[in-house]
From TrEMBL, chain A:
<keyword id="KW-0808">Transferase</keyword>
<keyword id="KW-0535">Nitrogen fixation</keyword>
<comment type="function">
    <text>Catalyzes the removal of elemental sulfur atoms from cysteine to produce alanine. Seems to participate in the biosynthesis of the nitrogenase metalloclusters by providing the inorganic sulfur required for the Fe-S core formation.</text>
</comment>
<dbReference type="GO" id="GO:0031071">
    <property type="term" value="F:cysteine desulfurase activity"/>
</dbReference>
<dbReference type="Pfam" id="PF00266">
    <property type="entry name" value="Aminotran_5"/>
</dbReference>
<dbReference type="InterPro" id="IPR000192">
    <property type="entry name" value="Aminotrans_V_dom"/>
</dbReference>
<keyword id="KW-0408">Iron</keyword>
<dbReference type="InterPro" id="IPR016454">
    <property type="entry name" value="Cysteine_dSase"/>
</dbReference>
<feature type="domain" description="Aminotransferase class V">
    <location>
        <begin position="3"/>
        <end position="368"/>
    </location>
</feature>
<dbReference type="InterPro" id="IPR015424">
    <property type="entry name" value="PyrdxlP-dep_Trfase"/>
</dbReference>
<keyword id="KW-0663">Pyridoxal phosphate</keyword>
<protein>
    <recommendedName>
        <fullName>Cysteine desulfurase</fullName>
        <ecNumber>2.8.1.7</ecNumber>
    </recommendedName>
</protein>
<dbReference type="GO" id="GO:0051536">
    <property type="term" value="F:iron-sulfur cluster binding"/>
</dbReference>
<dbReference type="InterPro" id="IPR020578">
    <property type="entry name" value="Aminotrans_V_PyrdxlP_BS"/>
</dbReference>
<keyword id="KW-0411">Iron-sulfur</keyword>
<dbReference type="GO" id="GO:0046872">
    <property type="term" value="F:metal ion binding"/>
</dbReference>
<keyword id="KW-0479">Metal-binding</keyword>
Length: 387, 227
């Protein structure tokens, strides 16, 4: 039985979510835009889910736009806002450790006249609010700072940066794909204009996401067609996925705090267990200001072996990931997050990401703590170990 | 009321590991450092200014710099100049390397075969790269122990199992040059950077084969060193 410690990549669908989705895969197949009974039922289901997703972040239902993924939400937020808002502001500011969905979109906007600035982070991956105070200005159109980072788990001071953006008259977007359902997010309490969520990161289905668009914020669509989702996202709605998303959001709202208490206990048990057995281990990202179930580790002197460690864990039945996605298609770019933290190129290869979720148990943590030291001990060392 | 004493937000979000803000507040008397786990407490939000190292503050300037001749940007992650990027062949799953295990007998003992997924690290003489590589075998010479493989990253090994050859020597690279700042001549040694080098470090090697192809200049480089 595989121990699944890769919940930042995706989460297993909660059985209650799957159950809620089931009818919408079969008998209830109507198109929400149809006027007959099947269509009306589908429309009601979509709108109920919209209420559920909105409630998770303190939004109004009409401020939720369903899309197909977190990546699409990020694209719509940045590209849509840039195209729709005043052209006398050309500044786009995003942090250096944003997900590629934000970074690449922001870079693409340069061809449309955007002046892109990447905000630095400190050695824990935290954005510096003072930097934003100095750089967000009357020429800034959009600021985007992720709520929590996918690689290192650090939670950003997004509410403070949102306030800085608002004060300067700029729009503020946060990629909350990792954060939604895991930490408190309330768009009534922070001046967030745009917020991206993905269902499959919170025990919902893949293929559905949402963009929160604050009432009054102008956005231009990036997908054109039949005018669904208030004209912002044309395409027949993914009804089953949206229903599942709604229930996943509701479950996260109802039991998120209890999940967090348990996940923090598991996280600390895992970190302390590894530290006790592997003196050369160190945590990447902020030690405390991190997602409840997120552990990013490296082993001093053995950072170049992260891939081998992940493979060994895989053989031992533990699904983990390297903090840097060293794959054929990304091998020349995986370290940008750790490089932005000031890691040298060698250390920037070394992250092991173990991310816990709702269905992980103490026994699984203990199993990994018992297995990991032996695997780490079998790794080649490039140099003397020092934490 | 305890939460008000220590200015906790009352969100009861559980992110600190306690069910309520009051429970955290009670524990703070014994473990004051726990306050760092409170995400929504304003005092916890901003690190001291001197901790912000602005490690990549130059990125902003880089991004807004006008597009330049690509030849002028041939610098590695240590800001050293090189002559060209070595690209992998479009028909290959990754960069092609000619390697030999430090104990060449391993090629036979492990029954290395075409299609096998392998891991190993290029130790010492030749590349000396500190990173373990993963890839798929495309040619094997059981007589000499020489293996040709394409470095692909761990996606394949994760799915299909793998063979670990331990340390190996990288004897040669094959790939494409699509742009270079100097003329490429056979028999000459050049600085180059494999496009997908995980450390983005320049290498040097001697070109001992050149072929003009539709995709670029096909070359083989041997006598490899990092730096």
């Amino acid at each position: 039985m595989t121990i699944y410690f890769d919940n930042s990549a995706t989460t297993p669908v909660d059985p209650r979510v799957a159950e809620a989705m089931a009818p919408w895969h079969s008998a209830a197949f109507g198109n929400p835009s149809s006027l007959h009974a099947l269509g009306r039922a589908a429309r009601e289901a979509v709108e109920a889910a919209r209420e559920q997703v909105a409630a998770l972040i303190g939004a109004k239902a009409k401020e939720i736009v369903f899309v197909a993924s977190g990546t699409e939400a990020d694209n719509l937020a940045l590209a849509g806002a840039f195209r729709a808002s005043p052209s006398d502001r050309d500044g786009v500011i995003v942090s250096a450790i944003e997900h590629p969905a934000v970074l690449e979109t922001a870079k693409a906007l340069r061809s449309q006249g955007a002046a892109l600035t990447l905000a630095p982070v400190d050695s824990d991956g935290l954005a510096d609010t003072d930097w934003f105070r100095r750089h967000v200005s009357a020429t800034t159109r959009i600021v985007s700072l992720m709520a929590a980072n996918n690689v290192i788990g650090t939670v950003q001071p997004f509410a403070e940066v949102a306030a800085i953006a608002r004060q300067a008259g700029a729009l503020f977007h946060t990629d909350a794909v990792q954060a939604a359902g895991r930490i408190p997010l309330d768009v009534r309490a922070a001046p967030i204009d745009l917020l991206s969520i993905s269902a499959h990161k919170l025990h919902g289905p893949k293929g559905v996401g949402a963009l929160y668009v604050r009432d009054g914020v102008a956005l231009a669509p990036i997908i054109h067609g039949g005018g669904q989702e208030r004209g912002l996202r044309s395409a027949t709605e993914n009804v089953a996925g949206i229903v599942g998303f709604g229930w996943a959001a509701e479950l996260a709202r109802e039991q998120g705090a209890a999940d967090n208490v348990r996940l923090v206990a598991l996280r600390e048990r895992l970190i302390e267990g590894v530290f006790a057995a592997c003196p050369q281990a160190y945590v990447i990202g902020h030690r405390h200001r991190r997602l409840p179930g997120h552990v990013a580790l490296a082993f001093s002197g053995q950072e170049g072996e992260a891939i081998r460690l992940m493979l060994a864990l895989d053989e031992a039945g533990v699904a983990a990931s390297t903090g840097s996605a060293c794959s054929a298609s990304h091998a020349d770019e995986p370290s940008y997050v750790l490089r932005a933290l000031g890691f040298d190129p060698f250390r920037a290869r070394g992250a092991l990401r173990l991310t816990l979720g709702r269905f992980n148990t103490e026994a699984e943590v203990d199993r990994v703590v018992s297995v990991l030291p032996g695997l780490v001990g079998g790794l080649r060392r490039i140099a003397t170990a020092r934490r | 009321m305890l939460s008000q004493t220590v200015e906790l937000p009352g969100a009861n979000c559980g992110v600190c590991g306690y069910r309520t803000c009051d429970a955290l507040a009670a524990e703070l008397e014994r473990k004051p450092d726990l306050i760092n786990r409170c995400l929504t407490r304003a005092a916890n939000v901003i690190e001291p200014a001197d901790k912000a190292v602005s490690a990549r503050s130059h990125i902003a300037e880089d991004l807004d710099r006008p597009a330049q001749d690509s030849r002028a940007t041939l610098r590695d992650s240590l800001d050293r100049e090189f002559d060209f990027y070595l690209e992998h062949f479009p028909e290959d799953p990754g960069p092609k390397e000619i390697i030999i295990p430090h104990n060449p007998m391993l090629t036979r003992e492990l029954e290395i075969s075409v299609g096998d997924l392998m891991v190993g690290r290029p130790l010492g003489m030749s590349c000396g790269c500190p990173i373990t590589h993963c890839g798929v075998v495309v040619e094997v010479d059981r007589r000499t122990g020489v293996i040709v493989w394409c470095v692909t990253g761990p996606l394949g090994p994760r799915n299909k199992g793998f063979k670990d050859i331990g340390y190996y020597i990288a004897e040669g690279y094959e790939g494409l040059i699509t742009d270079a700042r100097v003329d490429i001549k056979i028999g000459m040694r050049y600085f180059f950077q494999p496009r997908r080098c995980m450390l983005q470090w320049r290498h040097s090697g001697l070109v001992n084969y050149i072929n003009k192809s539709k995709d670029g200049l096909q070359v083989r480089l041997e006598g490899l060193w990092i730096g």
